[in-house]
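fyi for ur records
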Amino acid sequence: MTTAKIALVTGVSSGIGRMTAQQLAQRGLRVFGTVRRLDGAEPLKNVELVEMDVRDGSSIQAAIRRIIDKAGRIDVLVNNAGLALVGAVEETTVEEANTLFDTNVMGVLRTVREVLPHMRKERSGRIVNVSSILGFLPAPYMGLYSASKHAVEGLSESLDHEVRQFGIRVSMVEPSFTKTSLDANSPRVKNALAAYAAEGDLAYRAIGKRIQSAQGPESVAQTVVEAALGRWRMRHRPKGDAATLGLLRRFMPAGPVDKGLRKTFGLAAVVNGKKVS
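which gave:
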């Protein structure tokens, strides 16, 4: 059995997950990375790919069993796999919301439930859940995605209280918009409403500009690695927008934060046809 730490990273086919797996491997860990399908998956140097779908409990069970059979334990779990969705809350169907939560929240729950018994057996472990700045600063026209990340935040804090008695700690990484295929190709809701079209288009264009000018996944992945291997703290934010927004949310009054957020997303200062300050 290897003496190197064993890490499992979900969603390594691209973006933050792929870069995180690569950086963990470079730090000397034995890394397993999950992809929904092995057929056609692009190999990643020094990372062992495992087929796993976070929306399928039996798939997760089989994947964790394979990893334990090969490596004997899991020291680090990074829950990265996720979906995004753009659209007004009223435009979002229950089916779309269910799909989003099934991946972003229930996927974390399913994976944690399979990994924790092995960490408890070892009396040690680190779980890192990839959240978002939208987990503490909700954005217009991303209400259900924001809600899913709020759920991840609540789950993570509660879980950390529960498992630290076993030598296990839970952290979150809260990146801002990142130049990845997940952000760039975020699906829009299918049933758009004309009532939201004008303002929604302003928000969609603002989101696109933020993504185009955003940092790549390397810096976020570095923050995930620090959360996984460094000194524990609950929240980790990459340098740049995420760190700045975290400070603004914490120390600025709600009014200026709200006004600044609307300006960032290109929303007019109008309520019911009247200008507001």
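Residues 6-251 form a domain with the Rossmann fold fold (CATH 3.40.50.720). thats all i got for now
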